[in-house]
């Protein structure tokens, strides 16, 4: 028995010794008496691009598709189920698109000839249907002109797929001149795939244009405004900036298809439709009905920035079409109008109401400056052609607006020849901020948490303008917003936060995706016609942004940054406003880890708050059925003097908050 007892005691001793050694390995030190650097208010922001039906059919709450008959196929989105086209022996009525002008913006209208007072119907399918909610109000409007006959009433109805009426209203056209008419529908049921049916009483010919439908429940109740649930998700992020309008739509496949901000402001009906560059970009998800109405234009982007407390960051064309498509270039001697667009945009955002563009802003309802501080030149351009053009923009903008910070770019990749060349040349130009993009595997994000540790502190500041872990590969339609991607991004984000002296802005991309209209995945927020939810990636972003802090402080292990030792990643800040020390700890291990944390620098409360984000498995996702399956859970923990002992769950992102006395 004695040898067995000795053996057991020896084994127990070895196990305890191993556990003790393991615990020693997980000792972290935090010094909150010293600030390493300030955390920029723009550290965590959002990047909006009109991809995945993010604008029309998404954030912009218009429910009628092709409201003014301006798509390439002018009747797209519309249907006349019982017109003369389909009924050979009857004469109910017919619609015809009339192009009355090739100049300006709104070129077309629809002429309706009604021969049967009880028969002719016009339907609009919406954006993959129309989401309506029981008892909510919806505002309908159109422009009409009675050309002949006596059409006495226009009836407007919500219908479902079985043609059941789910709400009804009407308008009485009275004028032979173009006149605006409005009415309101109340939904009698909740339906994700409703359509609008328009029928006519009487016979004759009537012209229709700008047929529009908005929920009354928009963000801040604004007429013809934004979808409230989507803006709420953005608002809850507390973003430091809003980058817009893209992304590759800034460049366009050709220069003619680039985003031109001046066409997106002023009266809604005067804004020119444009095909969206994501329309047929990917064979796996062609969307030939994807256009830009610019109802969500630059004024609305600036207004949205203001609403959600974010600094506006517009990106403009530098005279280069997308280099993945045509790569079309504006000759250098023809670049002036592009540069003038940038100067005029700054005037539109900040100029006095006595200036031309400042007056337009005031006329649109915002006499106060939008306080624009940043402007981006080009999206993902690279090579000597970009540098040559950037120099011209930089010189002109700084000459007129020396306090505006200019954002430049190094192309679409975080390494390689394009990146190295761009960074070298931009440093020569003393560029203020360089935009870096990376769509990489989860493993890449974990391995590159030290990416910015050795960046030149005297060089350009960094804008991590687009990043997202790809569960399969870049641009794959099989990519998922799974938990491994999300916590791997969190691990990388601790590295960006640890280098806040260099990294001044960061944003996940893309932001929004319609579940039936997407082209690219993964995406931060998914929505359908009725609902929306944040992905695990969304909640990672929210945890970091809501706990940004004001000052970076050191969190170390054996005097070194915590960059993946024992599969732990960490960063720490203090908030001089809320008087808190805030630790962000990411455990990428398959096992929980007990960590001893020694906090030095002052007295602390005897308890703190923990916000824990974790999934049960690497492939866990949120969904419409379980929108908060992976979302932060709050608990308390004890602080013994300056010591915290905490178990960090496997595959978890944890924020620990402790009040300073």
What's the short version?
This protein is α+β, with helices and mostly antiparallel strands and about 650 residues long. It has eleven helices and 33 strands. This is non-reducing end alpha-L-arabinofuranosidase.
Tell me what the structure shows:
Helix 5 crosses helix 6 (356-363) and helix 10 packs parallel to helix 11 (536-546). The N and C termini lie far apart (57 Å). Among the domains are: 26-39 and 551-660, Immunoglobulin-like, CATH 2.60.40.1180; 78-215, Galactose-binding domain-like (Jelly Rolls), CATH 2.60.120.260. It contains eleven helices and 33 strands. The protein is of the alpha+beta class. Strands 1, 2, 25, 26, 27, 28, 29, 30, 31, 32 and 33 form an eleven-stranded mixed sheet that branches. Keywords: Glycoprotein, Hydrolase, Signal. This is non-reducing end alpha-L-arabinofuranosidase. Residues 1-23 form the signal peptide.
Note the gap between the termini: 57 Å
- Major sheet details: 11 strands, mixed
**Number of β-strand runs:** 33
Name of the CATH architecture of the domain at 78-215: Sandwich
Fourth-tier CATH superfamily name of the domain at 78-215: Galactose-binding domain-like
Name the helicity range: 10-25%
Q: Indicate the radius of gyration in whole angstroms.
A: 28 Å
CATH topology of the domain at 78-215: Jelly Rolls
Mean pLDDT, nearest integer? 94
Strand content is: 25-35%
Uncertain ranges: 1-24
């Amino acid at each position: 028995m004695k040898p067995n007892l000795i053996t057991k005691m020896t084994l127990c001793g070895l196990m305890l010794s191993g556990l003790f050694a393991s615990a020693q390995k997980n000792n972290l030190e935090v010094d909150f008496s010293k600030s390493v650097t300030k955390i920029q208010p723009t550290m965590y922001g959002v990047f909006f691009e009109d991809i995945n039906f993010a604008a029309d059919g998404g954030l912009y709450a218009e429910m009628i598709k092709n409201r003014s008959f301006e798509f390439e196929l002018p009747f797209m989105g519309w249907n006349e189920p019982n017109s003369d086209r389909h009924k050979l022996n009857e004469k109910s009525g017919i619609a015809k698109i009339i192009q009355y002008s090739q100049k300006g913006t709104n070129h077309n209208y629809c002429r309706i000839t009604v021969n049967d007072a009880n028969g002719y119907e016009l339907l609009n399918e919406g954006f993959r249907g129309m989401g309506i909610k029981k008892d909510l109000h919806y505002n309908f409007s159109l422009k009409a002109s009675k050309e002949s006959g006596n059409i006495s009433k226009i009836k407007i109805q919500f219908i479902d797929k079985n043609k059941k009426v789910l709400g009804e209203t009407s308008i009485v056209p009275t004028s032979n001149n173009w006149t605006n008419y409005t009415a309101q529908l109340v939904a009698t049921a909740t339906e994700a795939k409703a359509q609008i049916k328009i029928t006519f009483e009487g016979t004759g010919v009537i012209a229709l244009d700008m047929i529009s439908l908005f929920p009354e429940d928009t963000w801040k109740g604004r007429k013809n405004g934004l979808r409230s649930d989507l803006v709420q998700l953005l608002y809850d992020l507390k973003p430091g900036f809003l980058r817009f309008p893209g992304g590759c739509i800034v460049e366009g496949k050709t220069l003619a298809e680039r985003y031109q901000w001046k066409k997106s402001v002023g009266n809604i009906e005067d804004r020119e439709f444009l095909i969206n560059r994501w329309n047929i970009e990917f064979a796996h998800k062609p969307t030939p009905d994807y256009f830009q109405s610019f109802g969500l234009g630059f004024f609305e982007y600036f207004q949205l920035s203001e609403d959600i407390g974010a600094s506006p960051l517009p990106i403009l064309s530098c005279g280069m079409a997308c280099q993945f498509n045509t790569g079309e270039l504006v000759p250098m001697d023809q670049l002036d109008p592009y540069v003038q667009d940038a100067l005029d945009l700054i005037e539109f955002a900040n100029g006095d109401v006595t200036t031309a563009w400042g007056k337009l802003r005031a006329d649109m309802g915002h006499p106060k400056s939008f306080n624009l501080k940043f402007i981006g030149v080009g999206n993902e351009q690279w090579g000597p052609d970009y540098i040559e053009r950037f120099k011209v923009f930089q010189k002109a903008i700084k000459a007129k607006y020396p306090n505006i910070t200019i954002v430049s770019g190094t192309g679409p990749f975080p390494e390689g020849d394009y990146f190295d060349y761009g960074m070298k040349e931009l440093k020569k130009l003393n560029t203020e901020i360089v935009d870096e993009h990376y769509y990489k595997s989860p493993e890449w994000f974990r391995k590159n948490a030290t990416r910015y540790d050795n960046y030149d502190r005297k060089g350009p500041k960094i804008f991590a303008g687009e990043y997202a872990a790809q569960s399969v590969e870049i641009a794959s339609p099989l990519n998922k917003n799974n938990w491994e991607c999300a916590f791997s991004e969190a691990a990388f984000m601790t590295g960006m936060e640890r280098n806040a002296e260099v990294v001044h802005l960061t944003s996940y991309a893309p932001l929004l995706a319609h579940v039936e209209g997407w082209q690219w995945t993964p995406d931060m927020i998914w929505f359908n016609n009725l609902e929306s939810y944040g992905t695990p990636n969304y909640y990672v972003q929210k945890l970091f942004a809501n706990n940004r802090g004001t000052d970076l402080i050191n969190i170390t292990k054996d005097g070194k940054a915590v960059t993946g030792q024992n599969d732990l990643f960490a960063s720490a800040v203090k908030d001089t406003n809320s008087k808190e020390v805030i630790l962000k700890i990411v455990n990428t291990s398959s096992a929980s880890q007990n960590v001893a944390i020694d906090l030095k620098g002052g007295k602390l409360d005897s308890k703190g708050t923990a916000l824990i984000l974790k999934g049960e498995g690497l492939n866990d996702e949120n969904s419409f059925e379980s929108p908060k399956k992976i979302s932060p859970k709050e608990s308390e923990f004890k602080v013994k003097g300056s010591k915290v002992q905490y178990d960090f769950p496997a595959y978890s992102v944890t924020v620990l908050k402790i009040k300073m006395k």
